[in-house]
Amino acid sequence: MNRPLDLRHVASLALRDLIELAHLPDFDRVHDQISRVRGCTRPVQLVGTTQTLDATTNTVLRSYSTADEPTGRLLTACGNRRSSRCPACSRVYAADTYHLIKAGLSGGKDVAETVRDHPRAFVTLTAPSFGPVHNCKTDAGKLRPCRCGAHHAEDDPALGTPLTPAAYDYTGAVLWNAHAGQLWARFTTYLRRALAEHLDMTQKALNAALRVSFAKVAEYQKRGLVHFHAVIRFDGPDGHTTPPPAWATFDALSAAVGLAVKRARLTVESDAVGERVIAWGGRFKVDPISALGDGELTDARVAEYTDAKVAGYVAKYATKNAEGAGTVDRSLRCSHCAGRGYQCGPDGFRDLCGQCEGTGQSEPLADLPVHSHVRQMIRTAWALGHLPEFADLKLWKWAHMLGFRGHFSSKSRRYSTTLGALRDVRRAWRTAQARPAGAPETSEETTLVLSHWQYLASGYSPGEELIAAQVRHDRAQARDMAERVKTEGEVWR
């Protein structure tokens, strides 16, 4: 006879819950669930059932129910790409992004291996200047003084902040971030036009003989403005399976990028802030990508860019948010009034939101633990969001992102495989691993899957959180050990 545990003497709720979990008949299954989601920071809890039936005989081949689980629910990973929110899931996203980018450079994942012989470039596009800022310059390996006269260290919080905050164009900076995604889309259009002009061809003839594919990622500079790193590749008319024409060279691609950077621009008109021209900065880079070498790219200023290095660099920043700018990783608009500061009653009258007291903010901007430069960009985004002409930019929602609301990573349709395809392969592999030994293989054409799932909650119980922390620690230790072995092997070679 099992007596109920008397844990009244255990003061810690987390420890008390952990002891209760350890006394479950199938505690190993509890640990297995947490390990399968890699210690996800905030997993999704589901309850439900699934059955796999033979479509011809209606025989049940496999069945699963959360009622058979020791905790009565199933944990699934949150899938958040941001490393600041869930390091475990962001590593999976980074790995998928790495393979997506590398497949478009080296082949594989249904991409022809001959793609590595196509002209490719690693392009960096930056924002213009909105005022002088503190910077850290090096010349021939020597640190040069900033315009303020000081020698800033690389971790100096003053880097990227204005030399004269009162004269800095915060409005222009926020509007540039808000339109950066549209400017990129316009750049891709002008790139094809510039290429046709450089080659003295019509756009119709160019499109019939050449396809331009790309993948890009956004990265925040320390001054709070995004810039883009892109892989641009020339293909034949049918995509990566056909080689581009002989006249489609890297030099032609480099020249077309320069023309497109100068010509791609947007005009924003407002009675409150006047007319603003959104354009790229004058500092842009176009570097060739070689198909040799391996490793991780940690500095975008290195001389040689290889397939693996570029893929690693893009994957690294695909999981970042705005940490590089020192802002917060959460929305600042009040969830009750959606940032408006009021709520409409049944009679249509605007009642002051009692949650934020009319500010529309989830927390006072003055209390944010950020640098004054970042706080001023947030305030500017919030103020611009109240102007009717900028309502479509939703700056209330994206104030914590300093106005940027575009995709951090994106690609053209035929650049390479997709993240969805990579997830499908991983799901199929897990299904095969979970199949009981000796069970016959099944296919989607001969089986029918009936499922009924319901969302229960998010997160762990207090005891499960302790197990998840240990899982994360063990995985981090394993990664460090693998990296140490790799480094020592390179030294011995």
Give a quick account of the main beta sheet: strands, pairing sense, barrel closure.
Answer: 6 strands, mixed
Overall geometry: globular
Secondary structural class:
alpha+beta
| Assembly status | single chain
Radius of gyration over C-alpha positions, nearest whole angstrom: 27 Å
Along the chain, the helix and strand elements come as HHEEEHEEEHHEEHEEEEHEEHEHEH
Instruction: Give the low-pLDDT segments.
Output: 293-302
Count of all domains: 3
Strand content: 15-25%
Average residue pLDDT: 87
Total number of beta strands: 16
Organism: Streptomyces bingchenggensis (strain BCW-1)
Protein name: Replication initiation protein
Question: Any descriptors?
Answer:
about 20% strand; 16 strands; about 500 residues; globular; RepSA; 4-stranded antiparallel β-sheet; alpha+beta; 3 domains; Replication initiation protein
Structure description:
InterPro entries: RepSA (IPR046828). Pfam families: RepSA. This is Replication initiation protein. The structure is a single chain. With 493 residues, the protein is of the alpha+beta class. It has 3 domains: 1-43 and 459-493, no CATH class; 87-130 and 169-328 and 409-417, no CATH class; 342-401, no CATH class. It is built from 10 helices and 16 strands. It has helices at 13-22, 27-36, 87-106, 170-198, 203-209, 250-263, 307-318, 372-385, 419-434, 462-492, and strands at residues 44-54, 60-65, 74-76, 120-125, 137-139, 142-144, 211-220, 226-235, 265-270, 274-279, 284-290, 305-306, 342-344, 350-352, 409-411, 447-458. The strands form 5 sheets. A 6-stranded mixed β-sheet has the order 12-11-4-8-7-15, sandwiched between helices. Strands 1, 2, 3 and 16 form a 4-stranded antiparallel β-sheet that branches. Helix 4 packs across helix 6 and helix 4 (170-198) crosses helix 8. The protein is globular. The chain starts with 12 loop residues before the first helix and ends with a helix. Residues 293-302 have low confidence and may be disordered.
